[in-house]
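Example A, followed by Example B.
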Amino acid sequence: MDDILRDFISEANESIEALDQALVRFEREPEDPDLLSEIFRVMHTIKGTCGFLGLGRLAAVAHAGENILGQFRDGALKPDQSSVSAVLDAVDLIKRLLAELESHGVEQPGDDSALIQRLNAIADAGPAEAPQAVSQEPLATRIGGLSSVDCAVEIALAKARAASEGVRFHAIQEDTLNASVRDAVWAAVSGDPATDMKTLLAGLDIDSDSELRLLISCLEHGFAELGLDAATIAEVVAALAVDIPDAAQDQAPQNAPSSSPAGSSVAAQTIRVQVESLEQLMNVASELVLIRNQLLQTLRGQPESPFAGPLQRLNHVTTELQESVMTTRMQPISAAWAKLPRLARDLAIELDKRIDIVMQGEETELDRQVLEQIKDPLTHMIRNAADHGLESPGERARAGKPETGRIQLSARHEGSHIVIEVADDGRGLAVAKIRAKALAQDLITPAEAESMSEAKIQQLIFHAGFSTAAAITGVSGRGVGMDVVRTNIEKIGGTVELTSTEGKGTRFTVRIPLTLTIVSALIVDCCGERFALPQASVVELVGVGGGSGRAIETINGAPVLRLRDRLLPLVPMQELMGLDQPSRDDERSILVVRVGAFSYGIIVDRVFDTEEIVVKPAASVLRSIPYYSGATILGDGAVIMILDPKGIASRISTSPSAEAEDTETAAAADSHNVQLLIVRGQGEALKATPLQLVSRIEEIDASCVEYANGKPVMQYRGQLMPLVGLEGEAVCLEQSVSRPVVVFEDDSRAIGLLVGEIVDIVETPLHQQFRTTARGALGSLVINDHVTDIIDIAHYWSEAVAASGAGPAKASGKRRALIIDPSHFQRNLLSPLLAMAGFEVVTAEDSVSANEAIERGPAFDIILADAWISEADLPASSQAPVIGLYDHERADVPHAGASFRETANRLDRDGLLAAIDAALRPARNAA
């Protein structure tokens, strides 16, 4: 396959994917002329290029589809489901022909006459033009308008670039050249006497007679391919009014260099790179990371080495290179979602339903390797939601719902994971129906059916071969679906969680890692053997034995740990791996690992450090062992195995899916409890911050601290992160002394809070026991018999990012508050403030989930919503006052808070509490 054909296939595939999605949008928005113009341009570009390359089948199908689009554009045909479906069928055929062309290198023979006749019949159904009026029409109308000129120019320029004498056409950016030629031809055929082609193209350095002669010849060919007769083509050429000498008289110098800067000013800013080249670059970067790790391991043994400085610099450069290479592999998740609107549309037609698919977070990026793995699971979930979840229009009307069902997809970053949610507002999972089907298929016994809770019964939909469909159809009924979803997602280290309310809808939450190539891992030791465990799965580290005050207990022969009034099942690494060395009696470490909603502990002898590791596939003889997900090479050259948290969880008798319900039940019982990270400043005073706000804990020394505009900063993931000291202390580190930094991160911004010591993680209700006036504190609690101040993260965030003040907090009565904000960080930032002020806090990420919380009740006393969310989206049944929230970056934006009667700065603690107090005052007075 030559390079021209390969480039055409690549560009055509990109264009046809965009066309597929755009047509579905056009069916919903037929009055959008820009959208229609874009669809038409893509189709006729494919047609023109196919004609030039001699791809007759592709050109014929594209031409027939373009005829209908032309009728849409001219207003002669009104788009409806039938005509749009016909164009989509043409797009599907073009996809198949492109796939065959890519596989065989040449266009395969075939008969497409049935589809072409169908397309032509729809196009011919438009109003017929009067024959006698044709000769009286202007030239621009007779040639088919601007769309035909655009198409002819596409064909002409493709032919001109391929000609040996058309080499200078390649020096001009394609879009600029196409637009200039199109404007010149359109001006000529429209009768504009003030311009001609030679004048308009002179600025692009195409003013030699030989090049203009070639362009005119190619334009004649382009109009001929559109079906114009010779007389009309001659009239077009005459209208161009270009006086070109004969070729023999053309003595213009051809070797003069171009002096026009026009080409360079519009030069393309992107290049097309083969995926294989990116993979090779990733492999080289991975090897460089391994070498970096080996050098740093050597440096740890010789800290006074003269190579310490260069190696630290190499470490920074390698990290930057690694992140840059990872960025080249990142793609927006919209690439995986592109086919879903078309899928939902086709399912709606097939199932005779009305389906609206809504997407949020399309710009969220993840590794292309992960992206490919989630396409099939997403397709299965959309099909299940359309078939099993959403009701027919009649059923929805009887249930008091809108006739159009809604499927909502959302994606967001949470630490080193991507969280994807697929939710519908349909009938939900029918527990009785699932129970009956499971009994009929002997998946459970009658005794189990009576004892199983609703959540456990709902989990049965993930069982292979399970389906509640009454009959096998083209959409469902074969029992292949949700088991494929769970299997494929677990293969890439992800998890699937299910929540469903009968009559209201179902929500699937998928958590997957950002990348599978280079990950941050904890290096642990057991009986002299080292292992790596992905840090993203580790919740916390707990010491047992020795002077820790904790001990491992045994229940029914299984080891457990009492951790914050809960029993945590344990897996001893020594027994798991069959290691012979006797168990240690001194202090050991427990890695608390979470798989979905299930948590358990892994007992190891000690934990070494966190290290960026390169994931290598495990040897074939080890792939059948479920406890390993791969291997890696450490800095000292040792090859160690990477543990698979999901596989180890299978060692425990209670399955994660079954345990998830118990975990969620316990969490619901302790819904007022909050996990707190306890730290110590330079003195002995203890401080605490909600663990859900913490993004990461880093260990830094004096060499990591730099200064920007006189403010201390450190390099964090390729950006400068401000550093602030706890209790207002100056950020000043002694040489060779490490200090922990607690990182708080919100989207693209982060700050680091320098502390003296990480003490513990505890779980306790956030009920203020002592009000404080200290800057940077929300109040005080008694935690484990010690007075502990709750850190006001908003104060430090404002100090580092917005430089706003703080002051004493005003307490309110015990009431319920709802926080609506799309930012996970901002929701968690406000929660402790309101909890310390005596509120029971509920959070929601959008108006849909907020409405669900409002409908569930009890009633809320106050609602705090991000200022970019409209108050009109909230249900009228809610009588709670609503306050729109903005921050220092939005205060001067006209749209922010425009839909709210009351607004407040989310970072101004006193102002926000005062606004809440003022909003609640009428209710108190009425009481």
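Example B, a separate protein, is given below in the same form.
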Amino acid sequence: MANRIVVVVCSVVLALCAWAAAPGADLAAGFADPPSWGRPRVFWWWLQTTLSKPELTRGLEEMKRQGIGGALLWDGGSGPSAYGSEMLPLPPGPRVMSPEWREMVRHAVAEADRLGIELSLNMGTGPNCGGPWITLEHAAKMLAWSETTIEGPRRFSGELPSAANAKRWASVPGLERVVARFSKQPVSLYREIAVLAGGPDHRWVDISARMDKNGRLEWDVPAGTWTVLRFGYVVTPQKLTYGSPGGNRDHGMFVDHYSADAVDFQVRSFVEPMLRDAGEHAGRSLKYFHCDSWEIDSATWTPGLLDEFRTRRGYDPLLYLPALAGKTVVNEDVSERFRHDVRRTLADCLNDHHYARLLERCHQLGIGFHSESGGPHLFPVDSLSALARNDFPMGEFWIKAATHRTTEDTRLFIKPSASAAHLFGKRYAAMEALTSEGPQWEEDPRELKPIADRGFVEGANRLVLHTFTHSPDAAGKPGYEYLAGTHFNPNVTWWGQARAWTDYLARCQYLLTEGQFVADVLFFNGEQIPNYVERKKVYPDLGFGYDYDVANAEVVLTRLAVKDGLITLPDGMRYRVLALPRQGPISVEVLRKMAELVRDGATLVGPPPTKSVGLRNYEANDHAVRELAAAMWGSAEGVHRYGKGRIVWGKPLREVLRSDNLPPDFTFTGAGTNPEIDFIHRRIGSADVYFVSNQCDRQEEIRATLRVAAKNPELWDPATGQRREQVVFESQPEATTLPLRLPPYGSVFVVFRGAPRQDHLLTAPPEVEPRAGRNALECLVWKAGRYELNRASGGVVRVNVPNVPEPVEITGPWTVAFPKGWGAPESAAFPKLISWTENAEPGIRYFSGTAVYRTRFHLDRKLIGRHLELDLGRVRNLAEVKLNGRSLGVIWKEPWRVEIGQAVRAGENSLEIAVTNLWPNRLIGDAAQPAEKRFTHTNVNKFKADWPLRESGLMGPVRVVAAVVKPIK
């Protein structure tokens, strides 16, 4: 056994480090067919339903078929009825950790190995570590207290109210709601901490020795009004949420995240048995264990916290505990400094005893570990440090919805993991992606694309789509689902066409994991706890076009150095400036390190600090901060030299960068009103790669300027995998300007590599599309006219196109084939193209699924040899095109076009278009029917019979459009 563990450990270490050698020498090959590590992952939800080996195998095979590279196996419940969806009860399946359940996991791990799918396994039955095996000793705990007012002087003899039945407090601003939620719930464990008394001078004394084990206090009360606080801690009444039947039925508890002993107990209870079950597949298909985002409202204490505090903060916290009950100790400044120290200690324990401990224990056992350790919920965390304690950091982002997380600040948690990956040398910034609560089967790839692209421009490069739910065949369609998540499994209507979507994501992820992120600014995020990184924003003093990362104290103290005037990291990241966006408290240690960086040549931008953090020696530390700041910043705003570097104060950050002759990395002109265009830049060897995203539902024609010079630009389309040279561009000494046509929600990679071609053009009108032909430049002309194109070498190219063929509309009639068993006729004639919802036949009006349109059309021989495209007009929601028996692929977004030159022929042509809509129409139709007459079966009860139907099918017009191909001489 020992030898096997050594072998597995070595294999895991090699696997986890393999990415260091992975960057492809041929980017184009990887882009065309992304490797499995670059493909998207899914949350694989095992709801509390019957599991069978054949159905688990089929689920994994479907993942493989549709281009999924890995799955996070999570056993859980379907969730509560909420956000407009009633979640009906499900039949119970095998209990977590039962022999039947473990056999199913063993089978899944073996089958994943056979198929080359990488698995992670959620470390319990709910969002955080925990389960029915957690004992009271190892369960999450919270601080509690009771309060008694006594007038002195007198002898007090009486029983103090137990803290077990009194207030319980969370040491994080904004979480006071947990008091109301849990204060009246019974507890199953209570332990005393101390009894403290405070008088009018806000100073407190320990009178614990005057209370007996029954809670009776005997005390000679001095004169005045005294507040007596009886402190203790209790096991939090909160149970696991969204857990499996075993977790909910047995009232599984959360593990104590601040205790290494409790974490080790979780590993012994769950991780080690599952690794033994995995056998030879551990470290191969079973690659990681996972812990999800913080879902514990009230965990604020651990039995060893006072000792941890004394060791880490250097003073005894006992007499300051009243500050945690909202009381004043000495004065409010002292009280708040102490609260900071408590939050800091909790954050340190969370990092060291939970995330770092899980990472260490998993590695010892030959397996990897990842978690959503940086948020998004409010808790005492230093998010960047917590995210660093993973093999790769993981965040989350949600789709746009009117029901839950309705603002960008509450649904986008991408930048923390991206910055952690950049700052701590991690290849992947993973995301629980496209989560929702409210929508049910209401999203298609077109709608999801701009949200995924938002993730990419903020730095995400490994999406774990939430969620792929296991639903047994007996559940019917659309089957069993979890309350939350964008449903993505073989039961969605468009699963047969999903490969086009996953290929898009894979091509984006592949390029965005290669090389290194390019940024100019490193923001210091302060030392407050909680310490969160906000979503990517355009900061007023920086403006658009410069990108950035966000650092915390750990990064400053342990990772930063200066080389050639640039702030550098051991893994190669570089920044022009370190910026202090706010005038917050700072530790003496961090300020001294900043002084060292500036002395070595760094540029620091921002106002001087005036105050230290924490309580220990705070008066001396405040003085030290002010003294060092005066030496570094000087006495007035401006540019202050300090050693080899400088400090800039009172000057906008953008102005600092521009004065250093550093223009923005990306700018554009020509867009419409209030454009939403964003970018991210990576450097891959000698190549520069920009991902540019249009976040608006309208086409944008822009001229983009990118801070790359003396390289040839190419446009790589992640939706199709096609690559072409951008032959229209203008070279400047430090940048390149080029036109970009971005359709609604469009995106493109601009790849700079190799020397620029000498025969390129400077400008071209929008009706003309210059491109590189086999031997020379040529152009597609879409509209008749006389055009002038400017050469970079000088001179003008004149292109005269007197005629461009008119579009050929394919009017039908159309024969539409519907699948059997779903209420629609097997075949229907459509004299013209209309939405299915306008059809008089109820089976068509309420149809959900894929229907195949067929027709024949004639094409004049004169058009052969032109550049021809098939324009589908309006489609809801996806379409797969076959022309003369040849598949032309799946079209799922604007422009609804596909090139047909290789498949079309003169004379008669056979056209077939398979169009897929979404589930709501059939669910709305079924809502008016009794259960025995419904076509759909699901545990989600949401759609009502009187709801409006969604436009569906092929509305057209369908046309063949032509462009004239002209050489550029």
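On Example B: Residues 563 and 601 are 8 Å apart (CA to CA).
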